[in-house]
From TrEMBL:
<feature type="transmembrane region" description="Helical">
    <location>
        <begin position="467"/>
        <end position="484"/>
    </location>
</feature>
<protein>
    <submittedName>
        <fullName>Amino acid permease</fullName>
    </submittedName>
</protein>
<keyword id="KW-0813">Transport</keyword>
<dbReference type="Pfam" id="PF13520">
    <property type="entry name" value="AA_permease_2"/>
</dbReference>
<feature type="transmembrane region" description="Helical">
    <location>
        <begin position="165"/>
        <end position="190"/>
    </location>
</feature>
<feature type="transmembrane region" description="Helical">
    <location>
        <begin position="202"/>
        <end position="224"/>
    </location>
</feature>
<feature type="transmembrane region" description="Helical">
    <location>
        <begin position="337"/>
        <end position="359"/>
    </location>
</feature>
<feature type="transmembrane region" description="Helical">
    <location>
        <begin position="73"/>
        <end position="95"/>
    </location>
</feature>
<feature type="transmembrane region" description="Helical">
    <location>
        <begin position="285"/>
        <end position="307"/>
    </location>
</feature>
<dbReference type="GO" id="GO:0016020">
    <property type="term" value="C:membrane"/>
</dbReference>
<feature type="transmembrane region" description="Helical">
    <location>
        <begin position="441"/>
        <end position="461"/>
    </location>
</feature>
<feature type="transmembrane region" description="Helical">
    <location>
        <begin position="244"/>
        <end position="264"/>
    </location>
</feature>
<feature type="transmembrane region" description="Helical">
    <location>
        <begin position="45"/>
        <end position="67"/>
    </location>
</feature>
<feature type="transmembrane region" description="Helical">
    <location>
        <begin position="116"/>
        <end position="145"/>
    </location>
</feature>
<dbReference type="InterPro" id="IPR002293">
    <property type="entry name" value="AA/rel_permease1"/>
</dbReference>
<feature type="transmembrane region" description="Helical">
    <location>
        <begin position="380"/>
        <end position="401"/>
    </location>
</feature>
<dbReference type="GO" id="GO:0015171">
    <property type="term" value="F:amino acid transmembrane transporter activity"/>
</dbReference>
């Protein structure tokens, strides 16, 4: 028992920035990487954050949150989710400035809270990246089918556009459909690109971001003229059950729309390249999250004003809202094209990120070595890419968006809560470490961040606890069956 506890609590050492062990590849290591040039200003960070965050979430989960939980008050849900992100983002920034390495919350947890927590957070990150890739693929499928059947007027079997499973009364039930075929195909195609090492250039990514922003601006600008204020009443519908409308529904929806903020940590991980990080990091994080929250609130106001919130519970809420107004058919077509392009890039980013997490964990000995294999020609973690692709395609084809999206938020919220706790732990255990950026009022901000993230996590846990516990049990089997014995830290003892 003592040996097991010792294994769970062993931490990976933190080395000064610029230190790398001989023969140790930089990627995925907790050892500090080469010194980065500090060129980013607060303005750069704000734009980086907006570009990383805006897009996928607003096209995917907003309708489900409004229709099933918050009604027009989904606007408030975005405020609460953004507040939790703000606290977590400041904590991420302190870690990122100290340890500019890949692995994110997994690496930070390994250095502060021990191997057991690091494994659990790494397993939660699978929910974030793998399930997010599947979730966005389902939304991509919905917008594609809307474009094919609505705009082009071509037939497509309904049974091949929806998952065979549905979520009702806390359990999976048969939906009568066969498979979400387009979602499976996009995941398969993107996995193939990841296998051969296709990467997005900054130029292409900038174009995709511009398309997403342009579509949102057009939606707000032209959709606002067709708003019916009656659709906003009641603003907070009367509570009918725990988490179903009322204030409990607003908080429940906040745990769902948290999905829309995934990507903000791109700002935090740029701490090593930021001029005067103590000043510019808070401005960048707070500024980008404030801007994104304002944009989301405006989009939600237009979305819920265009049609009754009860009709928005689809995988393509923006297109659905525009369908109610024949005068905006042209805009619906542009939204569909923009969503298809924008969501394709998100699927690519997510399916590229997940094998990287597995690669990092495999190099630490916590996952089988095959996940650390790199293709001799393409220089990609090809085994992990294939496995991730198969699992993601299966999830996208069989599981409904409502379940996939909430599991993504749950995994992310736990990871963020752990990072907040890790900053507090490191302040006491390693006070001598150089911190280019320090969380202001850390003993207030860090607990608030952890509590806020855990509060939102438990909003979703009440409904999906069986699925989440099942996922956790699978992870525990892998760790205690393989990871605890093959850990590189164990071999150094």
């Amino acid at each position: 028992m003592y040996r097991m506890l010792k294994s769970l609590l062993r931490v990976k050492p933190i080395e000064p920035a610029g230190h790398v062990d001989a023969g140790e590849p930089v990627e995925g290591s907790l050892q500090g990487e080469a010194t980065l040039q500090r060129t980013l200003t607060a303005k750069h960070l704000i734009m980086l954050g907006i570009g990383a965050v805006i897009g996928a979430g607003i096209f995917v989960m907003t309708g489900q949150a409004a229709a099933n939980h918050a009604g027009p008050a989904v606007m408030l849900s975005f405020v609460f989710a953004g507040l939790a992100c703000t606290f977590a983002g400041l904590c991420y920034a302190e870690f990122a400035a100290m340890m500019p390495v890949s692995g994110s919350a997994y690496s930070y947890s390994y250095a502060t809270l021990g191997e057991g927590v690091a494994w659990f957070i790494g397993w939660c990150l699978v929910l974030e990246y793998l399930f997010a890739g599947s979730s966005v693929a389902v939304a991509w499928s919905a917008y594609l089918i809307s474009f094919i059947t609505g705009t082009l007027g071509l037939p497509f079997p309904t049974e091949l556009t929806n998952a065979p499973l549905a979520w009702a009364d806390g359990a999976f039930v048969a939906s009568g459909n066969i498979l979400n075929l387009p979602a499976v195909l996009i995941v398969t195609a993107v996995s193939g690109l990841c296998y051969v090492g296709i990467t997005q250039s900054a130029f292409i990514n900038a174009i995709v971001v511009a398309i997403k922003i342009a579509v949102i601006c057009l939606f707000v600008g032209f959709g606002a003229a067709y708003i019916d204020p009656a659709n906003w009443h009641p603003f907070i519908p009367e509570n009918t059950a725990p988490g179903v409308f009322g204030w409990s529904g607003v908080f429940r929806a906040a745990s769902i729309v948290f999905f829309a903020y995934i990507g903000f940590d791109a700002v935090s991980t740029s701490a090593g390249e930021t001029k005067d990080p103590q000043r510019n990091m808070p401005i960048g994080i707070l500024g980008s999250l404030a801007a994104c929250t304002i944009i989301y609130i405006i989009v939600c106001a237009v979305l819920t004003g265009l049609m009754p919130y009860t009709q928005l519970g689809t995988s393509k809420p923006v297109a659905t809202a525009l369908e109610a107004h024949p005068q905006l058919t042209w805009l619906k077509t542009l939204v569909e094209i923009g969503a298809i392009a924008g969501l394709s890039s998100v699927v690519l980013v997510m399916l590229m990120a997940q094998p990287r997490i597995f690669y990092t964990m495999a190099r630490d000995g916590l996952m089988p070595k095959l996940f650390g294999k790199v293709h001799p020609k393409f220089h990609t973690p090809y085994v992990g890419t294939v496995i991730v692709g198969v699992v993601a395609a299966t999830l996208a084809g069989l599981i409904p968006l409502s379940v996939l999206g909430e599991l993504v938020s749950m995994g992310t919220l736990l990871a963020f809560a752990t990072v907040c706790a890790g900053v507090m732990v490191l302040r006491f255990t390693k006070p001598e470490l150089e911190r280019p950026f320090r969380v202001p009022l850390a003993m207030v901000i860090c607990p608030l961040g952890a509590v806020a993230c855990l509060f939102l996590f438990f909003q979703a846990f009440q409904e999906h606890w069986k699925v989440f516990l099942g996922w956790t049990v699978i992870g525990l089997f892998i760790y205690f069956g393989y990871g605890i014995r093959h850990s590189r830290l164990a071999q150094k003892v």
